[in-house]
Design a protein that fits this description.
The structure holds 2 protein chains of 2 kinds.
Chain A (H helix, E strand, L loop, with lengths): L2 E3 L4 E5 L4 E3 L2 E3 L6 E7 L6 E7 L7 E2 L2 E6 L4 E6 L8 E8 L2 H4 L4 E2 L3 E6 L1
Parallel strand pairs in A: 2-12
Antiparallel strand pairs in A: 1-4, 3-9, 5-6, 5-10, 7-8, 8-9, 10-11, 10-12
Chain B lengths: L3 E4 L2 E4 L5 E7 L5 E7 L5 E9 L2 E4 L6 E3 L9 E3 L8 E11 L2 E6 L3 E5 L1
Parallel strand pairs in B: 2-11
Antiparallel strand pairs in B: 1-3, 3-8, 4-5, 4-9, 5-6, 7-8, 9-10, 9-11
The chains are: A mainly beta, B mainly beta.
């Protein structure tokens, strides 16, 4: 079974600064997907960024980027120019390929990020 | 497009009562799933379906039943509610496109069992 670990229960950052959230995972699969989801107080699940394990290049979406280290099984999220609206719980998630997963996600415990003015 | 629609959004149940959480998607997705989120935790998979007529158990299936009679609908049934089932429930649907899996979540259903 896969496991996903987020070792930082809470983090804070000043507005406009950069913050990195950590995630490690354990799997015997060679191909898989990794995700970061944002959950604001409304509890809506918002996809932030996605990485496919077979791609060497780190994914980037505007101010959000990842550092994917496949050998180390690490998948950190960097948020640049932090904004007050980034305040939320962030979840790291793992998914095996469609053929063996049925699109099932395994989530980490989450990191509560607070952006301070 | 409505996306993934969950009803009800809020529900209070008494211990021992039964109820059904409804989930519908209008995107013709083959995969659907139910998760629960307990305080301070990530989402955990309850049941999932890879197509109409096909369902399977996830990580925490006890106390819940599902069925998938149509592509659009995937209801979650609580057979005899217990306080331990107090949680936020999320339904999700997905498809595998050329850019990989894309997963859509409903807005969540808050369930309290007293």
């Amino acid at each position: 079974a896969q496991t996903v670990t987020q070792s930082q229960p809470e983090m804070s950052v000043q507005e406009a600064e950069t913050v990195t959230l950590s995630c490690t995972y354990d799997t015997s699969e060679s191909n898989y997907y990794l995700f970061w989801y944002k959950q604001p107080p409304s509890r809506q699940m918002i996809l932030v960024i996605r990485q496919e394990a077979y791609k060497q290049q780190n994914a980037t979406e505007n101010r959000f980027s990842v550092n994917f280290q496949k050998a180390a099984k690490s998948f950190s999220l960097k948020i640049s120019d932090s904004q007050l609206g980034d305040t939320a719980m962030y979840f790291c998630a793992f998914m095996k390929p469609k053929e063996t997963s049925g699109s099932r996600l395994t989530f980490g415990e989450g990191t509560q990020l607070t952006v301070n003015p | 497009n409505a996306g993934v629609t969950q009803t009800p959004k809020f529900q209070v149940l008494k211990t021992g009562q039964s109820m059904t959480l409804q989930c519908a998607q209008d995107m013709n997705h083959e995969y659907m799933s139910w998760y629960r989120q307990d305080p301070g935790m990530g989402l955990r998979l309850i049941h999932y379906s890879v197509g109409a007529g096909i369902t399977d158990q996830g990580e925490v299936p006890n106390g819940y039943n599902v069925s998938r009679s149509t592509t659009e609908d995937f209801p979650l049934r609580l057979l005899s509610a217990a306080p331990s089932q107090t949680s936020v429930y999320f339904c999700a649907s997905s498809y595998l496109g050329i850019n990989g899996n894309t997963i859509y979540f409903g807005e969540g259903s808050w369930l309290t069992v007293v």
